[in-house]
Design goal:
Length: 157
């Protein structure tokens, strides 16, 4: 019986190199899910928003085009079935330092501005995500400004 239990545990226990690979995949999915959530936050997904998501993931993770498409498709399915954002943000909080978290917030702002407009839902969602990532308000505002300027969107006073 002990041998049988040991065999069972060995069968379900991850291999030694699996956690590192799994952590990378979890982080990639978490990042993609947040970007996709911003992309989906307003009705109608523009090609520019999708291109911004793909460009961010390509730069961040160095994935090939087919891997990017699969990751975004998985992120879309995952986000559709998620009840909150905490699982995604906690994976990022566990793995990334503040500089990296600010960079992903800026990337999310670039997705939001990619179509030339910023909707109320996008703005609220970005505020929630930045809060869950523990990004200081000043860094959040500067990330937004940099993304807005990069998109060429004129700020209304």
């Amino acid at each position: 019986m002990l041998k049988t239990l040991k065999d069972l545990f060995d069968a379900v226990a991850p291999r030694r190199d699996a956690p590192a690979r799994q952590d990378v995949h979890t982080l990639q999915l978490a990042c993609a899910a947040l970007l996709v959530e911003v992309m989906r936050s307003e009705p109608g997904i523009s090609p520019a928003e999708r291109a911004s998501v793909l460009a961010t993931l390509r730069t961040q993770f160095g994935l090939a085009d087919d891997e990017l498409e699969r990751l975004v498709e998985l992120a879309e399915r995952t986000v559709a079935g998620a009840s909150d954002l905490f699982g995604f943000t906690s994976a990022i909080n566990d793995a990334w330092d503040m500089e990296q978290k600010i960079a992903i917030v800026e990337a999310m702002w670039r997705v939001a501005y990619a179509d030339g407009t910023l909707g109320a839902h996008e703005q609220h969602l970005l505020w929630r995500i930045a809060d869950l990532l523990h990004v200081p308000h000043g860094a959040y505002v500067h990330a937004k400004r940099r993304a807005r300027e990069a998109a060429g969107v004129v700020h209304k006073t």
